[in-house]
Amino acid sequence: MTSVIVFVTIAAMEEIEIIVAHHERATLRVGDVFLKVDTDQARADAEVAAMALAPVPTPEILWRNPPVLALAALPGRELGRPGKPSTASPEAWAAAGAAARKLHEAPLPPSPGWDPDELAENVDRECARLIANDVLPADLVTRNHKIAKAALRPWTPAFTHGDFQVAHIFVENDEVTGVLDWSEAAQGDALFDLAALTLAHQEHLPDVLAGYGADVDLDVLRAWWSLRSLRVVHWLVGHGFDPAPEVAVLEAQLF
User: I need a surface site. Which of 59, 66, 180, 237 has the fewest CB within 10 A?
Assistant: First the structure.
């Protein structure tokens, strides 16, 4: 494990808030500055490049001194929090859908992302681990694994954010003011972003689709709900996060 020491000089010393921290990355907030610490510089380079290419608002880069990237705080507030009811308006959810459509229609970023065959192998391994380690009931994993297979079909590559979840989308006055965390941006399936956005917030799917303004295969989108949840539960448990929202999605998929 690599240790990183970050020195921050602030004119008027602010309280340091740990936004997220795990073995791969950490994000701290000091006043109106967010400090992202990532020891994988290839990943950090890709994130900066994706932010420069994205046709939607992104945080201003204040400075970069590897392994630290300093970002200005975005106006507004998160669209929601994973696993908690969102207080954002239907118009704000529609605006998030419109931002996703704008991103998906942009020229492709350089990172190729997953292909369906690679992803299928990855999901097979994750499901085997979930069952072998008794993380989830075998029947729950097996039935969602079957549902997830509908997502593993050839897709037309789009510019995808890769983690287009509610906590990464900031809104104000029913408009998107910025999108955070571009470390997973790549060429991918547009429906993966829409599934990430509505995961555990399925009740807002009609508003998102109204803003997105394009036909969407709902069976494939629901398949991505299962696939994304299956892939992240073991990681969340291993890094000390609560997987309850993802587990609730997996359970709801069976009805």
Answer: 66
pLDDT one-digit tens code per residue, 51-109: 999 999 999 999 999 999 999 999 999 999 887 899 999 999 999 999 999 999 999 99
DSSP 254: T
* Residue pair 164/179 in contact by the 8 Å Cβ criterion: yes
| 107 burial level (CB within 10 Å; 0-12, 13-18, 19+) | exposed
C-alpha to C-alpha distances, 18 to 29, 35, 37, 169, nearest whole angstrom: 6, 10, 11, 19
217 lies in some domain: yes
Whole-angstrom distance, CA of residue 234 vs CA of residue 102: 32
Give me the CATH number covering residue 231: 3.90.1200.10
CA-based nearest residue to 47, from 29, 31, 24, 30: 24
Predicted confidence (pLDDT) per residue in 4-54, tens digit = 434 444 444 568 888 888 777 899 999 899 999 998 999 899 999 999 999
Residue 16: inside a domain, yes or no? no
For residue 4 the two structure tokens come to 């990183």
Separation CA 180–CA 188 (nearest Å) = 18
* Residue 5 is assigned to a structural domain of this protein: no
Going from the C-alpha of 57 to that of each of 19, 64, 171, 175, the distances in angstroms are 21, 19, 11, 11
CA-CA distance, 225 to 199, in Å (whole number)? 6
Looking from the CA of 201 toward its CB, the CA atoms found within 13 Å total 29
Of 229, 250, 237, nearest in space to 137 by CA = 250
pTM comes to: 0.90
Closest CA to 211 of 185, 175, 177: 175
